[in-house]
Amino acid sequence: MDNVFVTVFLFCFSLLPMAYLRYYPFRIIATLRERRILIAGHLIIFVVEFLLVTALFVSGHAPMQGSAFQKLYFVCYWPYFLLLMFTIRPFWFRHFFVLGIQAIYAVFIHTATVLLLKQIWMQMTYFASLYFICYLTLLLLSFPGMIWLLGRLFTREQLMKAQWTASSFWKYLGFVPLLLAFYQGSMGYVDLLQQVQDLSGVHLYMLVSRGILVIIGGILVISVRSGFRQVQYMFHAKERSMKMQEHLREIHDYANTLQEEQQKLAILRHDSRHQLRVLAELIESGHYDEAERHLRALRKEVERR
Questions:
Q1: Which of 123, 204, 223, 294 has the greatest number of C-beta atoms within 10 Å?
Q2: pTM greater than the 0.70 cutoff
Q3: Positive or negative, the Cα torsion across 125, 186, 203, 77?
Q4: Which chain positions lie within coiled-coil regions (predicted)?
């Protein structure tokens, strides 16, 4: 028989890696204050859920069965998700996108765990604690791959700049992985397993179909990353083009200013030659006083300029 405390602890602990996985793509913009809020919030949620779920089983309000844990899972992950979504905001649809990818991953790990236990245990029933140990083992073994996949999903520039944050396509793309996970998770394999005598074909179909779902999720993530890189490249190219246009405009303005100054200089040279000619004529004709007055007038004019 399962020990209630051990089983509930394993159940609550199995929620933490997925919570970290949902946080990981947003870590690049999380402030120290937000990280402290998330750490404290996760600890509080873990303790509260552990106590509540334990009390639920000990009091006999719920049986220690897989169906009960499945229902509890859909309730217990929401506090973690809402804490993250309202702490690191306003990336609502991106949070749902990451949640959907995580759900696809969780469905596959759950399916692999169930099939593995059925092959090893050779029974339709097994201890819940054994399931969670196997589930956590497969989860932690495959966790680095998910970290790599989601680690570069977003960049700091994409999350911080307004034009990236307001991308309208997230309203439509954000729920796609979640809908795929819900579709696969609600296909009724449990009822099918109870009705079919030869389960090997069903097991293979379950594993392959949910493996394909994981591949689709991975392609979605890679497509989003590649699309963002392309858009980012185009955006940077546009910025460079605008800067170049501004630089060319400055060069054009400088050339116009230089041309105006050259015209003024040409006029000044022409006036200077004329004034020198007048002075030379006055001096040659012996009108020294008038030449002196003319020089003083020129001096005042130069000083005014």
A1: 294
A2: no
A3: negative
A4: 244-271
- Mind listing the pLDDT tens digit for each residue in 166-195? 556 777 778 888 888 877 666 544 444 444
**Identity of the residue numbered 2:** D
Which domain-ending residue is among 214, 243, 272? 243
Amino acid at residue number 115: L
Q: How far is CA 37 from CA 51, 59, 77, 102, in A?
A: 21, 32, 17, 22
3-class state of residue 2 by DSSP: coil
Q: Whole-angstrom Cα distance, residue 203 to residue 184? A: 14
Six-digit token string for 233: 């490249």
Phi, psi for 174 (deg, rounded to 5): -55, -35
CA-CA distance, 227 to 216, in Å (whole number)?
A: 16
pLDDT value at residue 198: 46
CA atoms within 13 A on the CB side of 132: 25
Q: Are 244 and 135 contacting, i.e. CB atoms less than 8 angstroms apart?
A: no
Q: Is residue 60 part of a domain?
A: yes
Q: What's the length of the chain? A: 305
φ and ψ at 242, to 5 degrees? Answer: -65, -40
In angstroms, how far is the first alpha carbon of the chain from the final one? 104
Unique residue bearing structure tokens 């028989």: 1
Clarify whether residues 130 and 266 are in a common domain: no
